[in-house]
Amino acid sequence: MSSGAEQVNTNALPKGYIETPVKTIFKKFANQRDVSLVYGEPIELGLQKVVPVAKIKYAVGGGGDGNGGEGGGGSFKVKPVGVYIITPDQVKFQSTLDVKRLTALTVVVGGVLGLLSIVKGR
């Protein structure tokens, strides 16, 4: 992964352009097309490596009126989705989604809905 400090070619920028931290972040996400946005640095644990995986969503927008008024905004959302566990024998993906917890929640919600239908039927 890069250090985040990127050089800006000031000759290619419009007159009056001011580089801000927000513009730098937006440019990094807009320009970076490699896997380092979703795959973390591998962590070595003995004979196995663990590679974290994330899902990233971002949106950027902006505009101006041509008279010096301009604005912009954006949002970023990073959600861990799991890890790849790499051993000499296999590669396995371990999701962060807890299937047992999700199944239990489904059973509880189904039970509550069933009780509500019985109570309403009386």
- Estimate the helix proportion, in percent: 25-40%
Give the mean pLDDT.
Answer: 78
- Computed over alpha carbons, the radius of gyration is 24 Å
How many strands?
4
Q: Give the strand order of the largest sheet, numbering strands 1, 2, ... along the chain.
A: 1-2-3-4
H and E order: HEEEEH
Q: Which structural class do the helices and strands define?
A: alpha+beta
Account of the 3D structure:
Keywords: Membrane, Transmembrane, Transmembrane helix. This is Sporulation protein YtfJ (Spore_YtfJ). Strand 3 and strand 4 form a beta hairpin. By secondary structure, the chain is an alpha+beta fold. The radius of gyration is 24 Å and the shape is flat. The chain has one domain. The chain contains two helices and four strands. The N terminus is likely disordered. The chain has a four-stranded antiparallel sheet with strand order 1-2-3-4, with no helix packed on it.
